[in-house]
Amino acid sequence: MKGKKITMPKKKKVRANKKTTKPELAASWPSLPPDFPPSPKQRRRSITDLGPHEHAAFLFSDEAEWAAVVPSFIVSGLEKNEKCVVILDSHEINLLRQPLVRAGLNIEAVTNSGQLVIIPAAEAYLRRGSFSPEEMITFLKEETEKALSEGYAALRATGEMTWALRPSSDLGKLFEYEARLNHDFFPHYPCIGLCQYDRRRFTGAALKEIVLSHPLLSFHDGVYQNFYYFPPEEYFDPRRAELEVDRWLKNLIDAHSALEALEENGERFRSLYQNSTIGLYRTTPDGRILLANPTLVRMLGYDSFEELAPRNLEKDGFEPSYPRAKFIEKIEKEGEVRGVESAWKRRDGTIIYVRESVRAIRDASGRTLFYDGTVEDITEKKLAEEKLLSSLQEKEVLLKEVHHRVKNNLQVIISLLRLQSRYLDDPRLLELLQASQNRIRSMAMIHEQLYASQNFARVDFDEYIKNLITHLYVVYGISPNRVSFKVQAAKIYLDINRAIPCGMIINELVSNALRHAFPENRQGEIIVSLKQDEIGRFYLLVKDNGVGLPEAIEVEKAATLGLQIVRILVHQLGGSLRVIRSHGTTFSISF
Questions:
Q1: Do residues 375 and 279 lie in contact, with contact meaning Cβ atoms separated by under 8 Å?
Q2: Is 513 helix (H, G, I), strand (E, B) or coil?
């Protein structure tokens, strides 16, 4: 009834000595704030979950039940930096002291500090000899304000209500008080209230009034939202009996609607569970199967869940080499595991491969109750992957052998050219044969590096350029101390279609530099740089600080075989060539 306007008969004038009636009390009240009473996030909670502005009745039937709830309520408040006021009546203070001590509480410390205040009912509810709802509500307001001024987060109050059964007491005033708390006090003050009622002492009629006047009920081992609770504007309405019947009928309709919705949802999830294309299960941590849907039953080779149920997954459900212990350790540590591939054993002993996701379901203390999981059969996918991997390995071996054979064949050609040069005396012919050997070797080195590499698709060009230039220095007898070289091509990788022409270009340009740029023992430096920009284009620079390329030589029209090869290879790469004749010679190629 949140936000409902209270409509009552007009308030009558009351003589000072006349007892005020409930309708007259209700008539002067403003409507309830829209957010009261607070709605619990859960239908059932623990006594320690109660928070500010909540008002609960604790209905207990024996001392063990009382000792299990009231001390926990107090300790929870002390731990949350709340001031606790405990009003005792039928229970001696020692009955409260013992469970508090068992809970590890230093009673003397908290009472001396003022955080825990224990007072008898005669000094609270009956402090003027009789009970007055107005005075008790004022007392709670003052205690809450005092607690806040002392730096506490809230006031936590609990009181035994057996004092109301004394001959001098008026149960009507008690019920009025409980109802008025829900309007005058709890919505406006950060107090947590727990009213203790011994079911052995109160009549059924009295307990009914108690239930109607409390938004929350605590009994057995939980705190429950009270569907029978009457907000104050209804509780004090002269038509309360009619409203009570209306509420019961509404609760009846709501209960049936909830049951229908529950059945509908149950059928929906049952259908989803039964017809799911992936396996669903619930097991205990020690491997006992509690639930398994038909898909999982069939996946493991059984005809029914009853046949599968006696099997223990942790003992004989997995392929022996599967590290199940690590899987369980991860679940316990992280609470869930997703997408883990594992090998399970079927009924006939054959192996199926599955992808498994599991979540640990725990109780309030954190103890694992069971595992809920999904299982997807990936056997066909796994076998296909293994077949593909085997095929790839075979192709890698074949490709490696191809590179090895090509390198060997090129080496044979180099050897033949070297043998042929022994029968020649013409320096010009010998020079041409050597240049041909160098060109072939630049290609052979590509295949040699690919053969030795784990990656058959790309060449580490920094390493390749250094090896190629080192070989050329040896061929031409040039000392690195006279003509040094520097390579700048870190983290540059080329596929074979680019690597071979690029390698041959570097071979031609570095060979020309070694042969012509540094005559008469002239000292200098050769720099080879290969870089790549953000869009994937490469930039190759071959630079020397030698005597420079003669102006008479036009690279675009040069008839020499070396420069012709360079032009052809640049065109093959889809690139462009530029020559800079300053401080030596720089060939700039982009592709």
A1: yes
A2: helix
- Could you tell me which residues come within 8 angstroms of residue 295 by beta carbon, excluding any fewer than 6 positions away? 276, 277, 278, 279, 280
Whole-number Å distance between alpha carbons of 12 and 19: 12
Cβ distance 514 to 472 under 8 Å?
yes
Which residues, 6 or more positions from 190, have their beta carbon under 8 angstroms from its beta carbon? 52, 53, 144, 148, 153, 154, 155
Q: Which residues of 17-36 are buried (b: 16+ CB within 10 A; e: fewer)?
A: eeeeebbbbbbeeeebeeeb
In a domain, 213, yes or no: yes
On whether residue 386 sits in a domain, the answer given is yes
- CATH number, domain of 297, equals 3.30.450.20
39 and 113 together in one domain:
yes
Which structural domain, as residue segments, surrounds residue 388? Answer: 382-456
Among the three residues 318, 344, 377, which one is the final residue of a domain in this structure? 377
Element (H, E) at 462: helix 461-476
Which residues, in sequence order, are CB contacts of 63 under 8 Å at separation 6+? 95
Beta bridge partners of 279: 375
Number of structural domains in the chain: 4
Among 321, 351, 377, give the residue marking a domain's end: 377
Region label for 575, one of left (φ > 0), alpha (ψ between -120 and 50) or beta (otherwise): beta
DSSP β-bridge partners for residue 527: 486, 543
Which of helix, strand or coil describes residue 335?
A: coil
Would you tell me how many other CB atoms lie within 10 Å of the CB of residue 341? 13
pLDDT in tens, the chain (591 residues): 333 333 333 333 333 333 334 344 333 333 333 444 444 444 678 999 999 999 999 999 998 899 889 999 999 999 999 999 999 887 767 778 887 888 778 888 899 999 999 999 888 888 878 899 999 999 999 999 999 999 999 999 999 999 998 887 888 899 999 999 999 999 999 999 999 999 999 999 999 999 999 999 998 878 999 988 888 888 878 887 888 888 788 878 888 888 888 888 888 888 888 889 999 999 998 888 999 999 999 999 999 999 998 888 777 777 777 777 788 888 889 999 999 888 888 899 888 899 999 999 998 788 899 999 999 999 888 888 877 877 666 666 655 566 566 667 777 787 878 778 887 788 888 877 787 887 787 777 776 765 566 665 677 888 888 888 888 888 888 898 999 999 998 888 888 788 888 888 888 898 889 888 898 889 999 999 999 988 989 999 999 999 888 887 877 777 677 788 888 889 989 999 999 988 899 999 999
Copy the structure tokens of residue 341. 């591939």
